[in-house]
């Protein structure tokens, strides 16, 4: 555990010193990880019964549930956890200022710089408290895809009760396609996210332990805090 | 206690059950295939579900838990259901002709129903339980709706259905509209049941025609259930008996593990 800032009292009265990933974030992250696994695995089982693309079917060993009804059972179980956990996360992120602090601002110039660094294998990971522009955009993108997959899921789950929503999304089959594309985006994110986490393992430890403590007085553009390298 | 007869043995199932001998004969091969899949699976995301006992979905405890969630989902859908919200309707030019066939068997195996001897039998909380002939059903006022059929699998089509509004029919026969369920039995042994709110929805009918013509045999001739607010499989074909009841009855597909309410 990080002890680096534990003795540093809060410098302003408006906030208390919190960890990079406070406990609620860590709990929600791991609930979400398990739920995404259930939703994608069972969703692929449901998809296989009537593939949108003739060339794409998911092999049985990649799907959850023996027959379609089991896939549906898992999907209609996981959806409540996904929606409740996601909603809690959005409210938390907005109320605590976490989104504002961690994901903004987005700078196009820095984004291009980050992309160039990444292509030259120069991406710095020594400061986990600061997300670079690529990370910020990816996290914002996956949050957006998460919202869109729940909304499109609601539309295809209850297309008559929420017929107005289906109309807004461009019809039942379009809503189904949107649901599929959101899954693809989230799946792509998970692949990148898990790969990078495995390449920089201390990020996984941070998501378990909470990581270094952050002085709330420090702005998101301020100097990076001293990191305890023992984590 | 249910007043409906126990489901008659399906016409489409062999008398002696399915022959298991090939499975025994080729046991080695079947097991080898499963072992190979297990090895493949252990290298993938699916490994998690396989390592915890081959198929976590199949164990009794998991099925019990998942079906409890499914029952909870029934209640959630009852809350979401809007009794007076009408499903969108479409233009006659959008109607698919012929409609898309689907059943738990192939269209070649459909056993047509003889409408001359067919009767709609009534059971349960109904005042006048006299069976209805096809001729009498056809003499009732007709309703037409062009609605979207949505299958649980994900496909859909637009169909034009005409027939007797179910609420009007239940009133005609003096049914207890405060009862909880309306259950159906079919000529092929299929069973289905609806919550009363859905049965009384303006777009729920006992359909007799498709696209202005008498129902073709594969689509439920002479009479089928058609509701705009449920997935396809809830729309029972070749209906032979209707029961109004307060007793929940599992249906052909809910016994298989599909969600009972299955509203859309």
- Average pLDDT across residues of chain A? 87
Query: End-to-end distance of chain B, in Å?
Result: 30 Å
The number of domains of chain A is 1
Largest sheet of chain B at a glance? 5 strands, mixed
CATH fold-level name of chain A? Fumarate Reductase Cytochrome B subunit
Number of helices of chain A: 8
Helix proportion range of chain B = 25-40%
Radius of gyration of chain B equals 21 Å
Q: Topology, please?
A:
The complex is a heterodimer of chains A (231) and B (264).
Chain A: E1 18-19, H1 23-48, H2 68-95, H3 98-103, H4 108-119, H5 133-157, H6 163-168, H7 172-199, H8 202-209, E2 213-214
Antiparallel strand pairs in A: 1-2
Helix pairs in contact in A: 1-2, 5-7
Chain B: H1 21-25, H2 27-42, H3 47-51, H4 60-80, E1 119-124, E2 132-133, H5 134-138, E3 143-150, E4 156-165, H6 166-172, E5 181-186, E6 191-195, H7 196-199, E7 204-210, E8 213-214, E9 224-227, E10 239-245, H8 252-255
Parallel strand pairs in B: 1-10
Antiparallel strand pairs in B: 1-2, 3-4, 4-7, 5-6, 5-10, 7-8, 7-9
């Amino acid at each position: 555990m990080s002890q680096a800032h534990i003795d540093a009292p809060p410098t302003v009265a408006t906030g208390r010193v919190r960890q990079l990933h406070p406990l609620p974030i860590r709990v929600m992250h791991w609930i979400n990880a398990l739920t995404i696994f259930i939703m994608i695995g069972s969703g692929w089982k449901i998809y296989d019964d009537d593939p949108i693309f003739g060339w794409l079917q998911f092999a049985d060993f990649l799907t959850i549930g023996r027959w379609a009804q089991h896939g549906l059972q898992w999907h209609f179980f996981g959806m409540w956890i996904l929606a409740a956990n996601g909603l809690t996360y959005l409210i938390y992120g907005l109320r605590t200022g976490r989104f504002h602090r961690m994901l903004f601002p987005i700078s196009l110039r820095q984004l291009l710089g980050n992309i160039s660094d990444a292509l030259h294998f120069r991406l710095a990971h020594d400061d986990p408290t600061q997300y670079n522009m690529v990370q910020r955009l990816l996290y914002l993108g996956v949050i957006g895809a998460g919202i869109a997959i729940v909304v499109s899921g609601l539309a295809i789950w209850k297309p008559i009760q929420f017929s107005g929503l289906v109309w807004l999304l461009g019809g039942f089959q379009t809503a189904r396609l949107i649901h599929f594309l959101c899954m693809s985006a989230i799946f792509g994110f998970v692949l990148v996210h898990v790969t990078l986490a495995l390449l920089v393992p201390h990020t996984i430890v941070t998501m378990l332990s909470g990581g270094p403590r952050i002085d709330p007085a420090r702005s998101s553009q301020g100097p990076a805090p001293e990191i305890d390298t023992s984590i | 206690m249910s007043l409906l007869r126990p489901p008659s043995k399906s016409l489409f199932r062999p008398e002696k059950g399915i022959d298991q001998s090939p499975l025994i004969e080729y046991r080695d091969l079947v097991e080898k295939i499963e072992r190979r899949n297990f090895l493949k699976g252990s290298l993938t995301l699916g490994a998690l579900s396989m390592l915890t006992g081959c198929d976590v979905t199949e164990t009794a405890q998991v099925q019990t838990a998942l079906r409890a969630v499914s029952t909870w989902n029934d209640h959630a859908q009852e809350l979401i259901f809007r009794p007076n919200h009408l499903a969108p309707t479409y233009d006659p030019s959008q109607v698919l002709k012929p409609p898309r066939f689907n059943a738990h068997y192939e269209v070649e195996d459909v056993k047509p129903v003889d409408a001359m001897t067919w009767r709609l039998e009534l059971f349960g909380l109904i005042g006048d339980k006299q069976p209805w002939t096809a001729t009498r059903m056809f003499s009732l006022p007709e309703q037409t709706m062009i609605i979207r059929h949505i299958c649980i699998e994900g496909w859909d089509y637009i169909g034009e259905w005409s027939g007797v509004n179910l609420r009007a029919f239940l009133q005609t026969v003096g049914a207890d509209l405060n009862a909880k369920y309306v259950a159906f039995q079919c000529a092929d042994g299929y069973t289905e049941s609806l919550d009363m709110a859905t049965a009384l929805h303006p777009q729920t009918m006992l359909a007799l025609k498709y696209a202005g013509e008498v129902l073709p045999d594969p689509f439920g001739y002479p009479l089928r259930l058609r509701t705009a607010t449920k997935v396809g499989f809830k729309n029972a074909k070749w209906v032979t008996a209707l029961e109004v009841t307060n007793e929940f009855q599992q249906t052909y597909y809910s016994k298989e593990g599909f969600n009972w309410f299955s509203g859309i």
